[in-house]
Amino acid sequence: NIGLGKLSLKEAKELLSCECELKLDSVIFKSPNNSEIINFFKRTQSTVSLSLFLSSFKEAEDINFNVKELFNGSNIKELSFKLEITGVKGNENRIELGRQIYPMVTKHFKESNIDLKLDFKKPDIIFQVYFTGEEYLIGLRLNDKDFDGRTYRLFSHQASFKGDFAYKILRNSKVKKGEKTLFLLSKDSVLPIEAALYVHGSMVRKI
Fold first, then answer.
1. Residue 39 burial by Cβ neighbours in a 10 Å radius (0-12, 13-18, 19+)
2. Do the beta carbons of residue 116 and residue 106 sit within 8 Å?
Protein backbone atom coordinates (compact mmCIF):
# COMPACT_ATOMS: atom_id res chain seq x y z
CA ASN A 1 0.00 0.00 0.00
CA ILE A 2 1.10 3.58 -0.68
CA GLY A 3 3.59 4.81 1.91
CA LEU A 4 4.58 1.37 3.18
CA GLY A 5 7.34 0.67 0.65
CA LYS A 6 10.24 1.62 2.92
CA LEU A 7 8.84 -0.49 5.76
CA SER A 8 8.32 -3.44 3.39
CA LEU A 9 11.94 -3.09 2.26
CA LYS A 10 13.13 -3.10 5.87
CA GLU A 11 11.01 -6.14 6.69
CA ALA A 12 12.19 -8.00 3.57
CA LYS A 13 15.81 -7.42 4.59
CA GLU A 14 15.01 -8.85 8.03
CA LEU A 15 13.26 -11.96 6.71
CA LEU A 16 15.36 -12.65 3.60
CA SER A 17 19.09 -13.22 3.20
CA CYS A 18 19.23 -11.73 -0.31
CA GLU A 19 19.53 -8.22 -1.71
CA CYS A 20 16.27 -6.29 -1.89
CA GLU A 21 15.50 -3.28 -4.06
CA LEU A 22 12.78 -0.65 -3.63
CA LYS A 23 10.97 0.75 -6.68
CA LEU A 24 8.44 3.34 -5.52
CA ASP A 25 6.35 1.20 -3.10
CA SER A 26 7.30 -2.17 -4.60
CA VAL A 27 10.07 -4.36 -3.20
CA ILE A 28 11.98 -6.62 -5.60
CA PHE A 29 14.17 -9.46 -4.43
CA LYS A 30 15.76 -12.55 -5.95
CA SER A 31 16.10 -15.49 -3.58
CA PRO A 32 17.22 -18.97 -4.67
CA ASN A 33 15.93 -20.33 -1.36
CA ASN A 34 12.28 -21.44 -1.66
CA SER A 35 11.92 -22.09 2.08
CA GLU A 36 12.92 -18.47 2.72
CA ILE A 37 10.23 -17.20 0.36
CA ILE A 38 7.66 -19.47 2.03
CA ASN A 39 8.72 -18.05 5.42
CA PHE A 40 8.32 -14.51 4.04
CA PHE A 41 4.87 -15.43 2.71
CA LYS A 42 3.81 -16.65 6.16
CA ARG A 43 5.28 -13.83 8.24
CA THR A 44 5.25 -10.57 6.26
CA GLN A 45 3.12 -7.93 8.00
CA SER A 46 3.68 -4.91 5.75
CA THR A 47 3.11 -6.18 2.21
CA VAL A 48 -0.19 -6.48 0.36
CA SER A 49 0.77 -9.11 -2.17
CA LEU A 50 3.60 -11.37 -3.32
CA SER A 51 4.21 -12.03 -7.01
CA LEU A 52 6.65 -14.10 -9.02
CA PHE A 53 8.44 -11.52 -11.18
CA LEU A 54 8.08 -12.23 -14.90
CA SER A 55 9.22 -9.19 -16.86
CA SER A 56 9.85 -5.44 -16.85
CA PHE A 57 8.78 -3.35 -19.82
CA LYS A 58 8.13 0.15 -21.08
CA GLU A 59 6.06 -0.96 -24.08
CA ALA A 60 3.70 -3.96 -24.03
CA GLU A 61 5.51 -5.60 -26.95
CA ASP A 62 8.64 -5.83 -24.74
CA ILE A 63 6.98 -8.28 -22.32
CA ASN A 64 9.02 -11.48 -22.36
CA PHE A 65 8.99 -14.52 -20.07
CA ASN A 66 9.30 -18.30 -20.24
CA VAL A 67 5.98 -20.09 -19.69
CA LYS A 68 7.61 -23.54 -19.74
CA GLU A 69 9.65 -22.61 -16.65
CA LEU A 70 6.45 -21.61 -14.85
CA PHE A 71 4.55 -24.81 -15.60
CA ASN A 72 7.39 -27.27 -16.05
CA GLY A 73 6.14 -30.85 -16.34
CA SER A 74 2.44 -29.98 -16.04
CA ASN A 75 -0.27 -31.09 -18.45
CA ILE A 76 -2.23 -27.84 -18.25
CA LYS A 77 -3.92 -26.99 -21.53
CA GLU A 78 -6.26 -24.20 -20.45
CA LEU A 79 -6.24 -21.48 -17.78
CA SER A 80 -8.46 -18.55 -16.91
CA PHE A 81 -6.78 -15.27 -15.95
CA LYS A 82 -7.14 -11.58 -15.26
CA LEU A 83 -4.89 -8.55 -14.89
CA GLU A 84 -4.55 -6.31 -11.84
CA ILE A 85 -2.95 -2.96 -12.68
CA THR A 86 -1.71 -0.60 -9.97
CA GLY A 87 0.29 2.61 -10.06
CA VAL A 88 -1.54 3.82 -13.19
CA LYS A 89 -3.93 6.74 -12.68
CA GLY A 90 -7.30 6.78 -14.41
CA ASN A 91 -9.54 3.82 -15.18
CA GLU A 92 -9.43 4.54 -18.93
CA ASN A 93 -5.63 4.42 -18.87
CA ARG A 94 -5.69 1.10 -17.01
CA ILE A 95 -8.19 -0.36 -19.48
CA GLU A 96 -6.09 0.76 -22.44
CA LEU A 97 -2.93 -0.68 -20.91
CA GLY A 98 -4.76 -3.94 -20.28
CA ARG A 99 -5.79 -4.10 -23.93
CA GLN A 100 -2.14 -3.81 -24.94
CA ILE A 101 -0.92 -6.40 -22.43
CA TYR A 102 -3.56 -9.12 -22.95
CA PRO A 103 -2.43 -10.23 -26.43
CA MET A 104 1.25 -10.27 -25.42
CA VAL A 105 0.60 -12.46 -22.36
CA THR A 106 -1.70 -14.86 -24.21
CA LYS A 107 0.86 -15.14 -27.02
CA HIS A 108 3.55 -16.49 -24.68
CA PHE A 109 1.16 -19.08 -23.29
CA LYS A 110 -0.09 -20.09 -26.73
CA GLU A 111 3.50 -20.81 -27.77
CA SER A 112 3.55 -23.36 -24.91
CA ASN A 113 0.18 -24.83 -25.99
CA ILE A 114 -1.75 -23.32 -23.09
CA ASP A 115 -4.96 -21.49 -23.91
CA LEU A 116 -5.61 -18.40 -21.75
CA LYS A 117 -9.14 -17.11 -21.29
CA LEU A 118 -10.25 -13.96 -19.48
CA ASP A 119 -12.23 -14.43 -16.26
CA PHE A 120 -12.76 -11.39 -14.02
CA LYS A 121 -14.63 -13.28 -11.27
CA LYS A 122 -12.79 -16.53 -10.49
CA PRO A 123 -9.57 -16.70 -12.52
CA ASP A 124 -7.10 -19.56 -12.11
CA ILE A 125 -4.18 -17.13 -12.20
CA ILE A 126 -3.76 -13.38 -11.73
CA PHE A 127 -1.11 -11.24 -13.38
CA GLN A 128 -0.16 -8.13 -11.41
CA VAL A 129 1.14 -5.12 -13.33
CA TYR A 130 2.81 -2.32 -11.37
CA PHE A 131 4.02 1.04 -12.68
CA THR A 132 7.09 2.34 -10.84
CA GLY A 133 6.98 5.76 -12.48
CA GLU A 134 9.67 4.70 -14.94
CA GLU A 135 8.71 1.22 -16.12
CA TYR A 136 6.10 -1.50 -15.72
CA LEU A 137 6.65 -4.71 -13.79
CA ILE A 138 4.51 -7.78 -14.42
CA GLY A 139 4.33 -10.76 -12.09
CA LEU A 140 2.26 -13.84 -11.36
CA ARG A 141 0.38 -13.33 -8.09
CA LEU A 142 1.15 -16.02 -5.51
CA ASN A 143 -1.39 -15.14 -2.80
CA ASP A 144 -5.11 -15.86 -2.96
CA LYS A 145 -6.15 -12.95 -0.75
CA ASP A 146 -4.47 -9.61 -0.02
CA PHE A 147 -2.12 -9.73 2.95
CA ASP A 148 -3.17 -6.41 4.54
CA GLY A 149 -6.40 -7.91 5.88
CA ARG A 150 -6.19 -10.35 8.77
CA THR A 151 -8.37 -13.36 9.59
CA TYR A 152 -8.52 -12.34 13.26
CA ARG A 153 -10.16 -8.97 12.56
CA LEU A 154 -13.57 -8.81 14.27
CA PHE A 155 -14.57 -5.31 13.08
CA SER A 156 -15.68 -4.46 16.59
CA HIS A 157 -15.05 -0.78 15.94
CA GLN A 158 -15.48 1.39 12.83
CA ALA A 159 -12.02 2.87 13.34
CA SER A 160 -10.29 -0.53 13.25
CA PHE A 161 -6.82 -0.52 11.74
CA LYS A 162 -5.83 -2.84 8.93
CA GLY A 163 -2.93 -5.13 9.78
CA ASP A 164 -0.28 -3.45 7.62
CA PHE A 165 -1.11 0.04 8.93
CA ALA A 166 -1.07 -1.16 12.55
CA TYR A 167 2.31 -2.77 11.87
CA LYS A 168 3.67 0.52 10.53
CA ILE A 169 2.55 2.31 13.71
CA LEU A 170 4.37 -0.32 15.79
CA ARG A 171 7.61 -0.09 13.84
CA ASN A 172 7.49 3.72 13.89
CA SER A 173 6.97 3.50 17.65
CA LYS A 174 10.14 1.38 17.83
CA VAL A 175 8.51 -1.64 19.47
CA LYS A 176 11.38 -4.06 20.08
CA LYS A 177 11.63 -7.81 20.45
CA GLY A 178 12.17 -8.85 24.06
CA GLU A 179 10.43 -5.77 25.46
CA LYS A 180 6.93 -5.35 26.88
CA THR A 181 4.58 -2.72 25.44
CA LEU A 182 1.50 -1.09 26.99
CA PHE A 183 -1.37 -0.30 24.59
CA LEU A 184 -3.94 2.30 25.61
CA LEU A 185 -5.74 2.22 22.24
CA SER A 186 -7.01 -1.33 21.72
CA LYS A 187 -10.65 -1.22 20.63
CA ASP A 188 -10.25 -4.30 18.42
CA SER A 189 -6.81 -5.46 19.62
CA VAL A 190 -5.17 -5.06 16.18
CA LEU A 191 -2.17 -3.17 17.58
CA PRO A 192 -1.33 -5.62 20.39
CA ILE A 193 -1.93 -8.64 18.13
CA GLU A 194 0.38 -7.26 15.43
CA ALA A 195 2.95 -6.48 18.13
CA ALA A 196 2.76 -10.04 19.45
CA LEU A 197 3.16 -11.47 15.93
CA TYR A 198 6.23 -9.31 15.34
CA VAL A 199 7.87 -9.72 18.76
CA HIS A 200 7.51 -13.53 18.74
CA GLY A 201 8.18 -13.98 15.01
CA SER A 202 4.86 -15.79 14.68
CA MET A 203 3.13 -17.00 11.52
CA VAL A 204 0.63 -14.40 10.24
CA ARG A 205 -1.01 -16.64 7.61
CA LYS A 206 -1.03 -20.17 6.26
CA ILE A 207 -0.21 -21.11 2.68
1. middle
2. yes
Distance CA 17, CA 99 (A): 38
d(CA 12, CA 44): 8
For the beta carbon of residue 193, count every other beta carbon within 10 angstroms: 19
* Residues 10 and 169 sit within 8 Å (Cβ to Cβ): no
Query: What is the spatial distance between Cα 25 and Cα 132, in angstroms, rounded to a whole number?
Result: 8
Q: What is the pTM of this model?
A: 0.82
d(CA 153, CA 161): 9
- pLDDT of res. 154: 61
Q: What is the 3-state secondary structure (H, E, C) of 63-75?
A: CCCCHHHHCCCCC
Cα separation of 87 and 131, whole Å? 5
Query: Residue 152 has what pLDDT?
Result: 77
Distance CA 102, CA 106 (A): 6
Percent of the chain whose pLDDT exceeds 90: 57
Dist CA 144 CA 105 (whole Å): 21
56-92 per-position pLDDT tens digit: 999 999 999 988 888 877 888 999 999 999 889 999 9
* Alpha-carbon span 68 to 54, nearest angstrom: 12
Q: Say if CB 207 and CB 41 are below 8 A apart.
A: yes
